[in-house]
Amino acid sequence: MARTFHTRIHPEYVEGCFGCKVATVFVGSVSDVVRETSAMARRWDKDMPAYKRLRADGHQPRRIDGCHELEATAKDPITIATGIPLDSPSDIRAAHEANEACIAAGMRGV
């Protein structure tokens, strides 16, 4: 425990002592937290409206983060649902066939 005014009263931690509890709290750098929160808010300023548009169109993206890019680049509903880019027509066809096989087997499809 750091040497504080309170440690002059009793140098060891005492259970139930509010002064001891407060002395153990470390606040760290507030600017780091603010910077990280601000960066997330800036990303979500673009991602949240894109997520809402995708949901309104009946899609279910895996996460909010990255929905702006996903909405702009996704060519297929399976790409939106999985977050995995399917670039070639053969990849898209294979994903649709796998999805249909899952549905036929009684599993939940995309």
Structure report:
By secondary structure, the chain is an all-alpha fold. The protein is built from six helices and no strands. The protein has helices at 5-9, 18-23, 30-56, 67-73, 77-82, 89-104. Helix 3 packs parallel to helix 4. The N and C termini lie far apart (54 Å). The mean pLDDT is 79.
Labels describing this entry:
110 residues, mainly alpha, elongated
Order of helices and strands: HHHHHH
Q: Which shape, going by the Cα principal axes?
A: elongated
Class by SSE composition: mainly alpha
Q: Compute the number of helices.
A: 6
Provide the β-strand percentage band. under 5%
Beta strand count:
0
Q: C-alpha Rg, in Å?
A: 25 Å
Q: How much helix, percentage-wise, in residues?
A: 55-70%
Q: Tell me, rounded to a whole number, the average pLDDT.
A: 79
Low-confidence stretches: none
Give the biggest sheet: none
Distance between the termini: 54 Å
